[in-house]
TrEMBL record:
The UniProt record lists the keyword Translocase: yes
EC number, UniProt record: 7.6.2.11
Domain ABC transporter residue range list: 13-241
Name used for this protein in its record: Spermidine/putrescine import ATP-binding protein PotA
Record organism: Lysobacter korlensis
Length: 401
């Protein structure tokens, strides 16, 4: 193997009851987290939710107010940053401008008196496919290439844990996508533990084995990307990770396997096993791509939910799919994504339609739509003191985003 140099595997990272208080503000509240060795873990959340603070605590750049940090089973809470087997790639990757690419990558090894520094640096540069530019200065590279040099510089130290804080933030969409695949590939080859911070949900889902959705200093839900997407537990997760249509109402009946909710005069069923709550007021969610549009009232069949009639109030073409907004009296506007299998929209604005979906595609949330803050601008609604106060801004709409 060409990359045998990097065959060392990563270490488990364990955060036990971590709280971080800044004067007058609790940034992290009782965070418990285990990231198994060799996994690619993404911490996803809106601006200000505590992602960078978490990385800084792990790197040793901040001290927790409470709690312990363990790496590979060793308690590193009281050790200095340079004593931790951790490397960080920050968003601003600050390469040394007067050094060549090779010298930049070899710098850390040389400073630590490690032999074969240049050979190891070449090896790391081959990994990021930049060895042919080893003699250049950073200013002679594109932004994406500089980003890859920064990555090589971190990987060459073979840290047991690599922390990545929005490392692709500066790149254009296309380069970002290709770097995501490349990073994932590198992680697979070197087998290190990656902790990747991002506010880009697509990036988190594409890259990570496990995604933790963070909200106001707490992890709201954690799991494999498909699991989080298919079965979000809270309105925040349902709306931050992709889009959701949310319908709220009282439970009017239930069976051993289903729960029925009435919302705006319409009855909707959800599988009991996919609902966090089974009585009282329940919010049911369903993803826009799971909805079907009908121009005639569909026959009522068991296991299908039908809403309507309503009107198509917006049609937005976005390339692969078309997004329809459907307004049904009594409920929030519904968003329907339809793949562009035919040219032109399936229905036009103003059309009278029904919307249906299979009951097994719905999910029942643990909270109401008021808990949602849509992700964007969470920094503006975070309470001045303490985290987790369930005070969402007024006027938040569920459903259409
Ligand atoms: N030194 C500090 N003193 C006081 N508050 C701080 C300090 N550092 C961070 N904070 C606050 O802690 C919260 C979390 O900050 P953090 O940098 O972890 O957010 P983030 O999730 O990385 O956000 P972004 O996506 O914008 O980078 C923010 O509300 C921030 O204002
Ligand atoms: Mg940050």
């Amino acid at each position: 193997m060409a990359h045998a140099e990097f065959a060392d595997s990563g270490a488990d990272l364990e955060l036990r009851g971590i709280t971080k208080r800044f004067p007058g503000f609790t940034a992290i509240e009782n965070l418990n987290l285990t990231i198994p060795a060799g996994s690619f873990f993404a911490l996803l959340g809106p601006s200000g939710c505590g992602k960078t603070t978490t990385l800084r605590l792990v790197a040793g750049l901040e001290n927790p107010t409470e709690g312990r940090i363990l790496l590979g089973g060793d308690d590193v809470t009281d050790t200095k940053p340079h004593q931790r087997p951790v490397n960080t790639v920050f968003q601003s990757y600050a390469l040394f401008p007067h050094m060549t690419v090779l010298e930049n990558v070899a710098f850390g090894l040389k400073r630590r008196g490690i032999g074969d520094a240049e050979a190891k640096a070449h090896e790391a540069l081959r990994l990021v496919e930049l060895d042919h530019l080893a003699a250049r200065k950073p200013a002679q590279l594109s932004g994406g290439q500089q980003q890859r040099v920064a990555l090589a510089r971190a990987v060459v130290n073979r840290p047991a844990l690599l922390l990545l804080d929005e490392p692709l933030g500066a790149l254009d969409l296309k380069l970002r996508r290709s770097m995501q695949l490349e990073l994932k590939h590198i992680q697979g080859e070197v087998g290190l533990t990656f902790l990747h911070v991002t506010h880009d949900q697509e990036e988190a889902m594409t890259m990570a084995d496990t995604v933790a959705v963070m909200h106001r200093g707490r992890i709201e839900q954690m799991g494999a990307p498909e699991e989080l997407y298919e079965l979000p537990r809270t309105s925040f997760v349902a709306s931050f990770l992709g889009q959701s249509n949310l319908l709220t109402g009282p439970v009017v009946s239930s069976t051993a396997t289903t729960v029925m909710v009435e919302a705006g005069g319409q009855r909707i069923e959800v599988l009991r096993s996919r609902a966090q709550r089974h009585s009282g007021t329940v919010t049911i969610g369903v993803r826009p791509e799971k909805l079907l549009l009908h121009t005639a009232e569909p026959a009522r069949t068991a296991g299908a939910n039908i809403l309507g009639p309503g009107r198509v109030t917006d049609v937005s073409f976005s390339g692969v799919s078309t997004s329809y907004t459907v307004t049904v009296p009594g409920i929030d506007p519904l968003v329907v994504f339809a793949q562009n299998m035919v040219s032109g929209p399936v229905v036009h604005e103003g059309a009278r339609v029904w919307v249906s979906w299979a009951m097994e595609h719905g999910f029942g949330l643990a909270d109401g739509p008021d808990g949602a803050d849509k992700g964007a601008g969470a920094d503006t609604v975070a309470p001045a003191e303490g985290v987790g106060a369930d005070t969402a801004p007024a006027g938040q709409q569920s459903g259409a985003a």
